[in-house]
Each structure stands twice: as C-alpha cells, then as structure tokens.
Amino acid sequence: MNSPPPINPPPNFSPTKTQILNKTQLSVNNIINKYAYIWLKDRAQFWTWITFAVGERIGGWRWNGFIWDNFEIDIPKVDSIVIYTYSK
Fold first, then answer.
1. 57-63 sheet: strands from edge to edge
2. Domain membership flag for residue 18
3. Distance in Å from the first CA to the final CA of the chain
4. Is residue 13 part of a domain?
5. Residue 85, pLDDT above cutoff 90
6. Residue 9 lies in a domain
7. Which CATH number does the domain housing residue 74 bear?
C-alpha cells in the first residue's frame, strides 16, 4: 500500500445505513480515496479511507479513534459500506 493516509480524521459521527453499497457496487470509482464507513458481518464498524480494491479484498486506512492504521479485509466479511462526501 503506497498511498498515504488522509491528512484529516474522518467525520466525528457514525452514519446510519441509508445508502448502502453492495458487493457489485464496490467498483474502484465508488470507493477509492473517499471516506467510507464499514459495518462487518461480525458487527464491528469503523471509518476507513480505502486505497485499493483487488479481487475479493479492499484495504487502505482504518481510523482507530486517534490515528489511521493500515487495514485489509476480505469483501465477503463486509455487511455494508456507506461512502461519505463532505457537502459545502
């Protein structure tokens, strides 16, 4: 993973599952270099900055509440993803 983490932290709230991307919508244009909130099937949830999507894996940076950490996960473990864009 060569892309640096975002300069800023993610938004300071947890979104609701109103605009969910399913597996077929996980195209590079939809998720790369955008803030995304992920819910896993094991009920874990967190903010990410996704830098790659290859085959059945996505990865990039995961916000741990203080700093960005590297992460990779198998797409089948993902329950839902919401992409966040700042509105001006």
1. 68-74, 57-63, 45-54, 35-40, 78-84
2. no
3. 30
4. no
5. no
6. no
7. 2.30.30.100
Retrieve residue 30's tokens.
């939809």
- The model's pTM is 0.83
CA nearest to 13, candidates 37, 40, 41: 37
Interval 28-51: pLDDT, tens: 567 889 899 999 999 999 999 999
Q: Which domain holds residue 67?
A: 23-84
- Total number of domains constituting the chain: 1
5 occurs within a structural domain: no
Contacts for 70 with CB less than 8 Å, ≥ 6 apart? 1, 59, 60, 61, 62
Structure tokens at 36: 């995304």
Please give the backbone phi and psi of residue 30, each rounded to the nearest 5 degrees, phi first. Answer: -80, -30
The H or E element containing residue 29 is helix 28-31
